[in-house]
Design a protein that fits this description.
- By secondary structure, the protein is α/β, with parallel strands linked by helices.
- The protein is built from 8 helices and 9 strands.
- It has a single domain, classed as Spore Coat Polysaccharide Biosynthesis Protein SpsA, Chain A, CATH 3.90.550.
- A 7-stranded mixed beta sheet has the order 3-2-1-4-7-5-8, sandwiched between helices. Strands 6-9 form a two-stranded parallel ribbon.
- The longest helix has 19 residues.
């Protein structure tokens, strides 16, 4: 199941859903749109797509509550539906739907988590300035050093999880709401003994709509990392 969180993504949603349909087995696979009561009508469009396309489902949430809670809600839905693999992908085409089969194949070949990585050999970004590149690479390096892990793109949000990983993590205990959520999920998976395999992707900056990245999200991630390490060292994760 592909989890697709949305907030004000009306212009991107239908092209993304139809693009995903080109790379999924729509007789078996599902796309779950998780909409946080978007005021631009994204939720209504998602319902229309679900009425047309039997492999699309919609989960409506009462309001904007952050990326982390949206994904947690999606994960719970996917687990309840019996999904064996669960994917994360952005709705703004920053992640290429054509890469979905590569993430799935890597998990099917043995990885517990496959992470589409900008910062391994062969990966990269398009339309990013020097400052954004520095912030992203620096943030991943900061988290990697503090947590003592080798994953190079801890903040990357293009992922495929095996069911056992999500079932093995205490989802109730995951606290991060912004992009720190990606760091926390990866760290919790590693602490449970699961493997993370990074494969190169090219991340393309969104062309339509507004970025959800803000200063508070960055601050949350910075503060969350040492707190995670502290709690792990004391056996509280």
């Amino acid at each position: 199941m592909v989890c697709l969180p949305t907030y004000n993504e009306r212009e991107n949603l239908e092209p993304m859903v139809r693009a995903l349909g080109e790379y999924l087995d729509t007789g078996r696979d599902r796309v779950l749109v998780i909409d946080d009561n978007s005021p631009d009508g994204t939720g209504a469009l998602a319902d229309a797509l679900a009425a047309e396309l039997p492999w699309v489902e919609v989960l409506h949430r009462p309001g904007k509550d952050g990326l982390g809670p949206a994904y947690i809600a999606g994960f719970r839905h996917a687990l309840a539906a019996g999904a064996s693999l669960v994917l994360e992908i952005d709705c703004d085409f920053s992640h290429d739907p054509a890469d979905v089969p590569r993430l799935v194949a890597t998990c099917e070949a043995g990885a517990d988590v496959t992470l589409g990585s900008r910062w391994v050999e062969g990966g990269g970004t398009v339309n990013w300035g020097a400052v954004r590149t520095l912030v992203s690479r620096g943030g991943s390096l900061y988290a990697r050093i503090i947590l003592g892990v080798s994953v190079r793109d801890l903040t990357g949000g293009f992922r495929c999880f095996k069911r056992d990983v999500l079932a093995g993590i205490d989802l109730d205990a995951v606290e991060a709401k912004g992009y720190g959520f990606q760091i926390e999920m990866a760290y919790r998976a590693l602490l449970q003994g699961f493997t993370i395999t990074e494969i190169p992707i090219t991340f393309v900056d969104r062309r339509v709509g507004e970025s959800k990245m803000g200063g508070s999200i960055v601050v949350e991630a910075i503060l969350r990392v040492p707190a995670l390490r502290y709690r792990a060292l004391r056996g509280r994760l």
